[in-house]
Design a protein that fits this description.
This protein has 420 residues and is α/β, with parallel strands linked by helices. The protein has 2 domains: 213 residues, 3-Layer(aba) Sandwich (Rossmann fold); 179 residues, Rossmann fold (3-Layer(aba) Sandwich). 42% of the residues lie in helices and 15% in strands. The protein contains 18 helices and 13 strands. Strands 3-2-1-4-5-6-7 form a 7-stranded parallel sheet. Helix 4 packs across helix 7.
């Protein structure tokens, strides 16, 4: 389905109505902390020069809205440390793993979560600000006049159209994992008549780190097959369609079943998770996993079952293992950037080449399907081809990202401007 601006103006579906409500809510919230913003701006102006003055300003500022993104930021921070370059790292997780690291050049700061974090971000002063967080200039997160360049980097080998509408439209630069993400963003820019952003394919720090750990960690010693069940969050995921039925069938296989919901599910899908916990509590071969770092469970698992979650590509492209995925026919594109394009997304097109689909009808006899999939090599070529296509610049992403940020900072420095 192709959307244009006239369509958006003439028709407001429930999802868009909800989005508009969020916009109005954002306006009221913004009004609520306006005085706090004003205080911070006055304090900042009195205490030092702006980023444009080139002194008393942060050259490089990285922001993480949750500790679960640590695996993507760590390789970048390590590269800054290696280059002996100062970088500020703001986080909205008080227990972010960065605080346990003994960095010399990385300067971490907990800035609070929610509106408290936005107050700090909206008054930031830095030459370059890098984040995986979308939504700049859409709701509460506003551009600061003290920041020269805002850079968003994709944190998964997944579609770039998976964000809610307009979430990455207003960044100056976007760092992508592969060419297909770049093409998706360019398509959106043309459809929305947006100025072309600076886009650079850099790869994925998280994947590089996983690959290094695989090479340095032996395969886990286990006597039973481990099946990882990792659904996405929200009503389009398989939890709402046949979650309990699938879990019951998997438990009946006798294999070790590990249930790892998306972190957002603990808020958005709390009721259904509570039902699953109550129904299967005490089941011997069924356990939950909430590790911040998912390496151990991905390394341990023999098979992943998911829906449209990006963890599919973690498991298949890095670990080289096949997946089972539930049908995506019920996926609702309504509030996502993907609603603007008519072509099927690459993430859905590639699934049949890296694993097999399961439906509600095929849950019966799932053990036989699992055994055949684990023992077969028929998806080996498909996984290899998908890896080459969707994960570019392998092993060099952190180095490339830091070099790119340095080029942005140097291009905007007062010394460079004088030379021009």
């Amino acid at each position: 389905m192709h959307l244009d601006m006239d369509t958006v103006r003439l028709y407001i579906d429930p999802a868009t109505g909800s989005m508009l409500f969020s916009v109005l809510l954002g306006v009221f919230v913004s009004a609520g902390f306006f005085l706090r913003m004003l205080f911070i701006k006055i304090k900042t102006m009195a205490g030092g020069r702006s980023a444009a003055d080139g002194e008393d300003a942060i050259k490089y500022l990285l922001y993480s809205d949750d500790k679960r993104y640590w695996n993507n930021f760590r390789p970048i921070l390590d590269e800054f440390e290696k280059r002996e370059t100062d970088v500020s790292f703001w986080t909205s997780s008080e227990d972010d793993p960065v605080f346990a690291k003994e960095y010399k050049y990385v300067h971490p700061l907990f800035i609070g979560a929610g509106n408290k974090a936005f107050v700090k971000l909206n008054a930031a002063r830095a030459d370059v600000l890098l984040s995986t967080t979308p939504g700049l200039d859409v709701l509460q997160w506003k551009r600061s006049k003290g920041v020269r360049k805002y850079v968003h980097f994709m944190h998964a080998a997944d579609t770039a159209l998976g964000y809610r509408m307009f979430q990455i439209d207003f960044f100056d630069s976007v760092l992508t994992v592969s060419d297909f993400q770049t093409e998706e963003i360019r398509t959106l820019e043309k459809l929305r008549k947006l100025p072309a952003k600076d886009i650079k394919v850099v790869g994925l720090p998280y994947f590089d780190a996983l690959a290094e750990k695989i090479n340095s960690n032996p395969a886990p010693d286990k006597t039973n097959k481990v099946i990882l069940l990792a659904p996405s969050w929200g009503t389009s995921g398989f939890l709402y369609r046949f979650g309990e039925k699938l879990i019951e069938a998997l438990i009946a296989t006798g294999y070790e079943i590990v249930f790892r919901p998306h972190p957002q599910s603990y808020t958005a899908d709390k009721d259904i998770l509570d039902k699953i916990r109550a129904r299967f509590e005490g089941t011997e071969n069924f356990r939950w996993n909430r590790d911040n770092d998912n390496f151990d469970i991905l390394n341990e698992a023999d098979l992943l079952i998911s829906d449209f979650s990006g963890v599919i590509f973690d498991f298949s492209l890095v670990f080289g293992k096949p997946v089972m995925y539930t049908s995506v026919e019920g996926f609702d594109h309504g509030i996502y950037d993907s609603a603007w394009v008519s072509e099927q997304l690459w993430k859905f097109k590639v699934l049949p080449s890296i694993g097999c689909e399961i439906s509600e009808d095929s849950i019966t006899g799932i053990r036989e399907k699992i055994d055949e999939l684990i023992s077969s090599d028929r998806f080996e070529k498909g996984i290899k081809d998908a890896k080459a296509y969707a994960w570019m610049n392998q092993g060099k992403s952190a180095e490339t990202i830091v070099s790119y940020l340095e080029s942005l900072q140097q291009a905007g420095s007062p010394e460079t401007e004088v030379k021009k």
